[in-house]
Amino acid sequence: MTAAALQPFKLAGLTLHNRIVKAATFEGRTPGGEPGPELAAFHARFAKGGTALTTVSYCAVSPDARTFEDQLYLHEGVFGGIKALAEAVHAEGGAVSGQLAHCGGFKRNTPVEARRPLGPSGGINQYGLLSGVPLSGAMGKEDFARVVRQYGESAHLLRRAGFDALEIHMGHGYLLSQFLSPASNRRTDEYGGSLPNRMRFPLQVLAAVRAVVGDDFPILCKINLADGFDGGMTLDDCVQACRLLEQGGIDAIELSGGYVSRTPMYLFGGGGSPLPAMIRAEASSLHRLMLRLGGGKLFPSLPYRDLYFLEQARRVRDAVQVPLVYLGGASSAAHIETALAAGFDLVALGRALLYDPDLCRRLASEPEYQSGCTHCNGCVASMALPGGTRCTYNV
Ligand SMILES: Cc1cc2nc3c(=O)[nH]c(=O)nc-3n(C[C@H](O)[C@H](O)[C@H](O)COP(=O)(O)O)c2cc1C
Predict the structure, then answer these.
(1) What residues does ligand 1 touch, defined as CB less than 6 Å away?
(2) What is the pTM of this model?
(3) Mean pLDDT calculated for residue range 202-228
(4) Cys-Cys crosslink for 161: which of 83, 95, 311, 361, Cβ 3.0 to 4.6 Å?
């Protein structure tokens, strides 16, 4: 690996031993919502392969924050499991971050669902059309207070369990991203309209989390550069939002893009369509039918470009001083070097590390090494397979 990538990096009170982060990729390893040894082994493997910081994906902040039943939600009952996970990562010399997430008005179903899922504004919940939750509602005053409290409690649990950092998910069309996006936030109160208003709730969440974890504990957030469709959040919005996050005391911002219910392929910078494999992996015949009917539009096969978010991310780099994590299509020493040379402090990798968890170690001894990930996106469909998310190409 290049000398720059091997440099340690200080993030609040945490020192990372190099600049590489394993981006959150939903693991599919929490049957019944239980974080057991498989999830711990999944993350320890990246630490063993030399990755400085691995991210546990989609840690829902409440039962209602899950998009479906088998997701991890943070509560006292999972404390032992997440503590063991943190210990397993530490034993391999790595650090671990937990991604705090809430699905807002976009969810399939969970058994505890008592009412409509809530987001910034009510509407159709297309993901729940066939599972009994076709509509979402708008959050009211008491909902804001409750959800902010749940973020704080979840952050506290992760910190107590020995996690080294956490990442507030503000991207990809989930709750906080729904607030940021003018397409899903049609509120006319102080939480809607201008970008500062749309950022009000995400900033309240950040403040609540900070109050719980203290100043020396790193809080990252993941935010969209753009939603990738007309009427969605734009790059200008993102630049403004990042300035506000910086003022709000965020420790680092990971830049991404795309909206899972509208532009999932934007998130991946294109590549192969996961649709045929998703149809094969889908257990519900109704959802299979829906994927057959509507999936082609959502999951087209598109040309793929290395470092596909670099140009947009540079705009943010020019606008803020806060540490930035580059994410999107990095899979070789040259890509990592390019991102670091462009002023990014850390580089996150998703699919390249799923292909090869030893990527960091190999880069250290073989500077020309390149992950063999073909961006076929088979890993995306594998999220629904028994055994969980994995590279389906490098088997
Ligand atoms: C199988 C899979 C699952 C993912 N799950 C999540 C997730 O739970 N949370 C999240 O923020 N991003 C998720 N992502 C997006 C990645 O974090 C990352 O943004 C994306 O893969 C692009 O980075 P890459 O080009 O390095 O793969 C997922 C990506 C993949 C491939």
Answers:
(1) 23-26, 57-58, 99, 169, 172, 222, 256, 267-268, 327-330, 349-352, 379-380, 383, 389
(2) 0.97
(3) 98
(4) 83
